[in-house]
Amino acid sequence: MASELPMLPMKSSSAEMAAAAADPSTALMLRVRDGDAEAFEELVSLWQDRLVTLFRHHMGDHSTAEDLAQEVFLRVYRARESYRPTAKFSTWIHTIANNVASDLRQRSYRRREHGLPMSVSASSSGIGLDQIAVAASGQRPARQADRGELQDVVQRAIAGLGDNQRMAVLLAKFEQCSYEEIAEAMQLSVPAVKSLLFRARDQLRAALEPYAGEGST
Description:
Layout: H1 14-22, H2 24-33, H3 37-59, H4 62-78, H5 89-113, H6 130-137, H7 147-159, H8 163-174, H9 179-186, H10 190-208
Helix pairs in contact: 1-2, 2-3, 3-4, 4-5, 5-9, 6-8, 6-10, 7-10, 8-10, 9-10
């Protein structure tokens, strides 16, 4: 795939050079746009684990997460010639990731409508989300619960979140995105993102409340 990269470089503007200097991922993507095959490999190496982890948390299935991450890189590659660093690279790639996840959910819903088995459920339990869920809820467990028990509680709470709520929580707590960055990535307004996170926080708080002490916030 990398061998098909165009070899004629595009002259970068001063704004693009400034963006590249501020963000290593942007610098790599501009090199990819200009036909640097090694830069694409570096970009994949830099973002592979982050995307797989994001999708695994969101979908609850590692194999599916790897497939979705590869789809993101394929879309990044296809969009290389039109790439402009008008937003942070992390916001741009998170937008692609959200679109990939949305496409999978739509295919899953269509398969369900036609009575066909789905390869992954859009509401699969969020494996490994314990700490993220606790952070998102604002609760601090007051007692040391059995790990299996706490995982069960967290997974039920995460499964109860809507797809957009789950993605917003992951971008906020796992990727440390701002409201504005989440809004751009998910193609929503900032108030809509705040509403998603507020509702998700309430649901997670209610689920974790039995484990919280007086010092929770």
